[in-house]
Structures are given as structure tokens and as C-alpha cells.
Amino acid sequence: MGPDFEPWSRAMHRDSVRAVYWEQLLAKKDVEHKPVKKKSLPKQRGKKSYYADTLLCNGKIALMRLSSLPYEKISVDSLRIASFLSTISEADYLIIDIQGNSGGSELYWSRLVVSRLIPKPITYFSTQIVRGGEINREYCPEFFEEAESLTGEVCSGLPDELYDGTFYLRKYPCEVAASDPIAFRGKIYLLVDRKVFSSAGGWADFCKQTGWATVVGETTGVQGIGRDPIVISLPESGLLLRYPYCNGINADGTFNGEVGVRPDIEIHGKDKNERLQNLIEYLSAL
Fold first, then answer.
1. What's 222's DSSP letter?
2. Which domains does the chain have, with CATH numbers?
3. What is the dihedral of CA 163, 164, 166, 172, to 10 degrees?
4. How far is Cα 235 from Cα 213, in angstroms, rounded to an integer?
5. Cα-Cα-Cα-Cα dihedral sign, residues 153, 158, 160, 166
6. How far is 218 from 191, CA to CA, in rounded Å?
7. Residue among 275, 174, 273, 176 at smallest CA distance from 219
8. Could you tell me if 126 and 116 are in contact, meaning their C-beta atoms sit under 8 angstroms apart?
């Protein structure tokens, strides 16, 4: 196991769980023990497809729908996505619908989609904020090696509580390399909603930074920029909990942890299907 994962390993395998704590807690007479009912357990799901595509309006509009960005599906979905992208060269518009997408892997969207739709590498930045507490420093020591204290001079317009002297900022340069680009010269629209989080929200911020696609729909959820949550073990009970320790700054300078990513064009609708239909009608009329 690499050194980057040692804090997680220690939290998961610590041998100091207090058995006495649980014995005392469970021995209390006022603690009600309810058996778990079978019907309350989640049903086991079969194989689920997170990707779908189609051509609409006599080939004028290409549509890709991604409900998740699973790392384990990259090798499988790359073939399906490559096959579809090879058919859209004559389309005027490409809609990438990620409504309801709670994230997954940044590599999914950067390698499978963006890299095929750029003629040359694109550079962007991930601007991250982390509080300088003991636990955070243990889990991401490399962040603090070149991070600077967050002040109004470094970055203005953020929530006041971030300027209390305990938060640090670091700007990471990132690059998406072009890979066998296809001959598509149409316009790209990334359709998002308030249920878009994590790396899916990061995709929206990438589009806002670089102009690779026009972001349409609703303002995304928060926690779209940052890192995987930390796992820690509570000292008395040994219970494991996760908390998001890292957040970021949007392309427009707003705090992603508070406002999400705002769309370039708002598309309204009572649900994701209606918003998609409204976008299709909007593009069809252009």
C-alpha cells in the first residue's frame, strides 16, 4: 500500500476499538433494540447501464446521457462512446445530459469524452481549499507543502468564515490531452441540474473555465471541486465516519461548497426529462 493511503488504512484497521464502550451502551435498559426487518434492506441491483446515446432531429442533434461516471466502467464504456462519437460528425449540436449524476471518476469524462472532442490539449485549474487541522494535515500533507494561507488578498469574495486564518488554498494545473479527435465541429451543451455533484460538478466547472461546452440547466449541487472525503475512526466507539475536508473555488470566483456551478443558460422544467425536452426544442429552433 502506498504512503498516500496509510491514514485510511490505519482508520479502517485500528485495534483500539473500545469493546467496553459498547458493552455499557448496549446494557442500558432504556436502549431499545429493534431488529432489522427484511423488507427494509435495500434490494440487490443487477447490472445497470449508466450510459445511453441517440441521434435526434434527423441527425441534427446528438445526445449522450450519463447518470454516473464509474471508474470501473471506463474500459467497457469507452468502446460504446467511441462508436457513437464516430457517427456525429454531421450533427450541429451535441447534448451531454448529466442530470442526476452524483459523480464517480474525473478520468471517465476527461478520457472518454473530452479528449475525443478537442483538437489539442486543454489546461485548466483545480483551486482547492482545506482547513489546516491536524487530521487534514495527516491525510493530505502534500497539499500543505505549497499551499498559501487564504486571505482576501489571495482570493476575495468568499464567505467571511474562510478568512479566519485556518484555511489554506492551492491551485493545481490540470491538462486533458487530445486523443484521436473526431471530426465534430458543432456546439456542445452540458445539461446539469441541482443533483449533479462531485466529479460531475467538476466537469461543469471545467466547461465554465475552458469554454469547452456551454453549461445549461440548473445550478449544480455543491462539493463539485475537491477530493474524496476523509475516513476517520471515532476514539471511543471505533465507528467510522467520512467528512468532506476539501472544497474549491468556481471559475467565476464563487465558493463551490456554497453555491455550486451556475449554468450559462437556465433551462427550466418540472423534472430532468422536461428540461431535456425543452433544450432539444430550443436547439431545434435555432
1. S
2. 50-121+177-224+260-286 (3.90.226.10), 123-176+226-254 (no CATH)
3. 0
4. 47
5. negative
6. 8
7. 275
8. no
Helix (H) or strand (E) holding 272: helix 272-284
End-to-end CA gap in the chain: 54
* Grid coordinates of 254: 464563487
Q: Quick one: CA torsion of 32, 36, 42, 44, rounded to 10 degrees? A: 150
State the maximum Cα–Cα separation within the chain, in Å, rounded to a whole number.
72
Query: 90 and 185 in contact (C-beta within 8 Å)?
Result: no
At 176, list the grid cell. 486533458
Q: Which grid coordinates are listed for 219?
A: 445550478
Cα separation of 152 and 249, whole Å?
A: 14
Q: Do 105 and 74 form a contact (C-beta atoms < 8 A)?
A: yes
Length of the chain: 286
Give the amino acid at 25: L
How many Å apart are CA 196 and CA 220, to the nearest integer?
Answer: 5
DSSP string spanning 50-97?
-EEEEEETTTTEEEEEES-B-GGGHHHHHHHHHHHHTT-TT-SEEEEE
- The SS3 call for residue 11 is helix
Rounded Cα distance, 86 and 3, in Å: 42
pLDDT in tens, 77-118: 999 999 999 999 999 999 999 999 999 999 999 999 999 999
Which three cell numbers mark 135? 487530521
Query: What digits encode the pLDDT tens for the residues 53-73?
Result: 999 999 999 999 999 999 999
The partner residues of 62 in beta bridges, in order of sequence, read 55, 94
Beta strands in the chain (DSSP E): 51-56, 61-66, 93-97, 122-131, 148-149, 167-176, 187-192, 214-217, 230-233, 240-243, 246-248, 265-266
